[in-house]
Every structure is written in C-alpha cells, then in structure tokens.
Design goal:
Helices cover 4% and strands 50% of the residues. By secondary structure, it is mainly beta. The protein has a 4-stranded antiparallel sheet with strand order 1-2-3-4, with no helix packed on it.
C-alpha cells in the first residue's frame, strides 16, 4: 500500500491528519482514496472528532487556513480547487458526509473525475494570510474571499486571479525548439512575499503583494 500523509498545524485545539493511499494489489483504474481526520488535542479520546473518506477526485495536495476556517484541496483528477468549511463539519466521531464544495469549474471537475483524468498530478496548494495559492505546472492562481454587494445577497465567495505567467524554457533543439513554461517545483511564503523555484532555473523568483495587485520584483 502506497501512502502519503500530511500533518496540519492545529487551530482552535484541533489537529488534522490527512492521508492518501493506493492499495498495492488494486487495479490502477480503481484510483486513489483519501482520508481526512480532525483530532481534538485537548481531549483524551482515541477517536477523531471528525473523519471523512473519499475516492472521487482525491486530493493531489491539501492545506488548511486558520484565517478562512477552511480546508482546501486540489483534485488529483480535475486539478480544480475544493473548499470544506470547518465550521460546517459535524461534531462527534465516525465517518462524515462529503464536505467538499468545488470553487472552481464544477462541470470540469465532475467530467475529469468520471473519466479518471490526472490533471491535478503535481499541483501544489498553500494557504497564507487570507489567500489560497495554487501552483499547477508553471502557473500560480490565487484565491481570495470577497463580499458581494448587498443587492447580490451580501454573502462571501471565493474569487480567483492569476499571478503573472512565469518565464519560459526551451524544449527540443534547433529551429523546432518550442518555448514551454518552466514548472514550479518549490515555493515559500513570508511577510508580503512569495518565492518560487522553477525547474532548470538557477534563480529564485520573488513576488511581492500589494493591496490591489501582485507584482514581480526584478
């Protein structure tokens, strides 16, 4: 059995354990299945206060936001972003209902999951301050929570923007060389900045945030 396990920092006395597994003797078409569990570190109980398992569009990566009180994942099949509101999760142990709401393209996510695509393989997701960053290939998208106007209901929704387009790298040789974007392989966040490392690049790309925009430092 192949297993990936994540340990998320605690918030409100809760700590999460998240794993994604593939049984060794299961046909590849069966795909990945994931388990999410929240534990109350203040209690002596040996069972999680909330747990859910999934097989449809299991996470390629997952992150928790204390600011937004939510879990976010990138679907391994679709590459779309999903959100689970921690305030809406059930209390008590046992297996919970499907908590995820697609905040990206729901139709694309459903189609990719049913056809067992792998658009999300290699994608990364990270929560920082009140933003959710997603790296897919060479591109970075950033999700933020905005409040609609009163005439639109005044509710809060997640909106997506993109951080630049990134540099390009040569693929092939000679006149047939094709310019391709350099894939993001690592990133880090601190202060108002995001640092990116790209494949086959010896430099670090640094982006600085402002109230109205995100711009790249030369």
């Amino acid at each position: 059995m192949s297993r990936r396990r994540y340990q998320q920092p605690s918030w409100g006395g809760l700590v999460s354990t998240i794993s994604c597994s593939l049984p060794a003797h299961t046909p590849a078409r069966a795909g990945w299945w994931g388990t999410y569990a929240l534990w109350d570190i203040r209690a002596s109980a040996t069972v999680p206060v909330w747990e859910v398992r999934e097989k449809e569009d299991c996470f390629a990566d997952v992150a928790a936001s204390d600011t937004l009180s939510a879990l976010f994942k990138v679907g391994a099949a679709s590459g779309e972003v999903f959100m689970a509101d921690l305030r809406m999760l059930g209390n008590g142990g046992g297996i919970g209902l499907e908590p995820w709401v697609c905040i990206g393209d729901g139709q694309r996510a459903a189609a990719a999951a049913s056809s067992r695509r792998k658009y999300g393989n290699g994608c990364m997701i990270e929560c920082y301050c009140n933003w959710v960053f997603v790296a897919c290939g060479a591109d970075v998208e950033v999700w933020s929570q905005v409040e609609l106007a009163p005439e639109a209901g005044g509710k809060k929704v997640m909106k997506r923007n993109w951080v630049g387009s990134g540099p390009y790298m040569d693929a092939g040789a000679g006149e047939e060389a094709v310019k391709e974007k350099a894939k993001i392989v690592s990133w880090a966040f601190g202060g108002s900045r995001m640092a990116l490392a790209r494949a086959d690049k010896r430099s670090v790309e640094v982006w600085d945030s402002a109230l109205a925009k995100i711009c790249a430092n030369p």
